[in-house]
Amino acid sequence: MKILFCGDVVGSAGRKALKEFLSSLKEDLKLDFIIANVENAAHGFGLTPKLFKSLKSYGIDVMTMGNHTWDKKDIIDIFKTENALIRPLNYPEGTVGLGFNIYPLSDGRKIAVAQLLGQVFMRDVNDPFQAIEQITQKYTLGKDYNALIIDIHGEATSEKVAMGFFLDGKASLVAGTHTHIPTADAMILPKGTGYMTDIGMCGDYYSIIGMQVETAMPRFINKLKKNRLQPAEKEGTLCAVYLETDDETGLCKIIRPIRLGAHLIKAL
Hints:
6-stranded mixed β-sheet; 14 strands; 7 helices
């Protein structure tokens, strides 16, 4: 199976980058499935129903969220009716929406997607390791689905690496989101799981992790937080990770980062 996972989509620059590059990537790479983290798609904070529909029209099969899941309250209605939007699995029991789901492809193959929210330097949530272990004890990679993609949305690199090794051999890919900076550690772990600490963002990299320098810089210089952060909305870059899996075992055969657009060195 050939899968593309796009990092955090930040504001209009990120959305434009997806619109510009996704169609050609799908054709050139012969992609079977496209995932994107979209929790910053609506002007940097959350997702709206209108943007959900717009992004879906670009060819995205499943969208994941994160710590900004509930920033736009009307997104709750989408969670009630759509299975193509995934929120963190380790939210409290009874939370609206799905944290894990299995998606059938037209050829009969199945791909599962789950998202986990890290605990280190993040909001208080349930243990992500226990949450995903309940899934891997119930379902088996290569038997119940042909691929399992994990979005670990977290601040601490150590927690993400720990999750990678915790799921090694049980998932096709464990990929990090949230920090908006692509890491250089795309690899296949010893038991066959693809791993990357952070995919990076789809957005304007002439910024401070997607926010205008003018609005973000004062928070570091004089601790002022009076000005609301504003997303940088000039030239965007698409950052993603490309994965090829073995349909029988579900394990990773090829993993590589993709970077297309302005500012960052191209990778394809």
